[in-house]
Specification:
The protein is an alpha+beta fold. The chain has four domains: 118 residues, PAS domain (Beta-Lactamase, 2-Layer Sandwich), CATH 3.30.450.20; 101 residues, Beta-Lactamase; 77 residues, Helix Hairpins, CATH 1.10.287; 145 residues, Histidine kinase-like ATPase, C-terminal domain (Heat Shock Protein 90). It is built from 17 helices and 17 strands. A five-stranded antiparallel beta sheet has the order 2-1-5-4-3, sandwiched between helices. A five-stranded antiparallel beta sheet has the order 7-6-10-9-8. It is elongated, with a radius of gyration of 42 Å.
Length: 483
């Protein structure tokens, strides 16, 4: 009758010894007050011996803190003590760096009598792999969040799942509001969206696709988009798409400014050639006219009338040549830190009579907390007067309304806005507005706005224009404030 328990004990011992994880049993060692001061080994299996690199005879009957004192510093002793005192089991992962061990362990401890049994596994390999993945994910998350380029993650239905801060700024929306938006809401042209989605669905990468995106404020932005597919951890199931966007507005602006600079340069060359070829014979003509005046008697009928006509037109030709030369060369400015509002007021005063004669309304909203700006007052007044006169001429008498506004638009920016409620400019003409010789007027050379832009750029400032047919036009000049 006694053989069966012995066989059962042997079977149980065999199971414990062959377990793929370490097993140890301890009983509490208490002081005279009943406080636990250590634990004594009662049992250890072969796997445990291998993990801690100790023989059974070095463990059984010995105290935990004598053999493995690092348990105290690592906090394991206090955890085991709590298990015995409360009866609550504990399961956790622990990096153990003591007693010749530098490993990650998965540990479970449960109370048994006045002691506990602990099972543990060396999980160093899997833990380090996990930490590498976690670290990689953190790096990706940091790149995602801090990227200067807008990044969108979308599901297979074409709905935004995540967006970084750059994307929220690009689409002019509040934080965390892009998630849940369909891509059709963000891509301006529906046909472009369909082509993009088909390419991504078919497993093709989308490289440098130029398209227009639409912000939540209605701004249309030229952009370049790169897109790839995203798969689950197995790499088999498609879960969505990653879209990286690069704003082309600055590049387009730079290209436009380069083309404009080339046109101005070419205009300058043409102007200098024309001036040379025309002014020489014009000078001879003027000298001949003066000689002719001396030789023809004053009583000759209508002589003075014809002399006057020739003289006026010669002066007109000379002035046109001067205007052409002046519009195409960079301005030599005398920049002085001063109030933009003062220059604006002086410029507006020059068109006040025109406004009054045509019964037009003037609205001035000049901010009083503007920092000084580096200005050449005389040259800037020339540019502003040109813009103001154009605004007056674009409006109708009795209903015209000219609005002048200055404001601070950043730590180091001051903006001047000149708005009219006139006839507006056709969209197809906006891009040509500052080009030399372009004009919508019946009379004029089309050099006025070219000269304006030249003066503004010489101030290291920027000029922008917005217009709607039948509603009016707004010119905005953005200056860098004096720091």
């Amino acid at each position: 009758m006694m053989t069966e328990p012995t066989s059962l004990e042997q079977l149980l011992s065999s199971v414990l010894q062959s377990a793929p994880y370490g097993i140890m049993t301890f009983k509490a060692v208490r002081n005279s007050k009943g406080d636990i001061i250590d634990f004594e080994w009662q049992f250890t299996n072969d796997t445990a011996e291998q993990i801690v690199n100790k023989k059974k005879e070095e463990l059984i009957g010995h105290r935990l803190l004598d053999v493995l004192p690092g348990n105290k510093e690592a906090g394991l002793f206090d955890t085991y003590k709590e298990v015995v005192e409360t009866g609550r089991s504990a399961s956790f992962e622990q990096f153990y760096e003591a007693d010749g061990l530098e490993r990650w362990f998965g540990i479970s401890a449960v109370k048994v009598g006045d002691g506990f049994t602990v099972t543990f596994q060396d999980i160093t390999g899997s833990k380090e792999a996990y930490l590498k993945i976690e670290q990689s994910e953190k790096r990706y998350r940091k790149l995602f969040e801090e990227s200067l380029d807008p990044i969108l993650l979308a599901d297979t239905a074409g709905t935004v799942v995540q967006a970084n801060e750059a994307a929220e700024q690009a689409f002019e929306t509040a934080k965390k509001t892009l998630a849940g938006q369909p891509l059709t809401r963000l891509i301006h042209d529906p046909a472009t969206y369909e082509d993009l989605f088909v390419e991504l669905k078919n497993g093709n990468k989308v490289n440098e696709l130029e398209l227009e995106l639409k912000s939540f404020k209605g701004t249309i932005k030229p952009c370049v988009l790169n897109g790839i597919q995203l798969y689950d951890e197995s790499g088999e199931e498609l879960v969505g798409f990653q879209l990286v966007i690069r704003d082309l507005a600055k590049r387009k602006k730079a290209e436009k400014e380069l083309v404009m600079a080339e046109k101005l340069s070419m205009s300058g060359k043409i102007a200098r050639t024309i001036a040379h070829e025309i002014r020489n014979p014009l000078t001879n003509l003027t000298l001949a006219l003066e000689q002719l005046k001396d030789e023809i008697p004053g009583e000759v009928e209508d002589a003075d009338l014809y002399f006057s006509i020739i003289e006026r037109n010669a002066d007109r030709i000379n002035n046109l040549i001067s205007e052409l030369l002046d519009s195409s060369k960079p301005k030599d400015l005398q920049l002085i830190p001063q109030s933009l509002n003062d220059v604006v007021k002086q410029s507006v005063a020059l068109v006040a009579d025109r406004l009054k004669l045509q019964n037009m309304k003037l609205v001035q909203r000049l901010s009083h907390d503007l920092p000084d700006v580096q200005l050449d007052a005389d040259q800037l007044k020339v540019a502003l007067l040109n813009l103001l006169v154009n605004a007056v001429e674009a409006m109708k008498a009795d209903t015209g309304k000219l609005t002048i506004k200055t404001s601070r638009t950043g730590d180091h920016q001051v903006t001047l806005g000149i708005s009219d409620n006139g006839k507006g400019i056709p969209p197809e003409d906006l891009d040509k507005l500052f080009e030399p010789f372009y004009t919508a007027k019946k009379e004029g050379m089309g050099l006025g706005l070219t000269a304006v832009q030249n003066i503004i750029h010489s101030h290291k400032a920027d000029i922008q224009v917005e217009s709607m047919l039948g509603q009016g036009t707004t010119f905005q000049i953005i200056f860098t404030a004096q720091v």
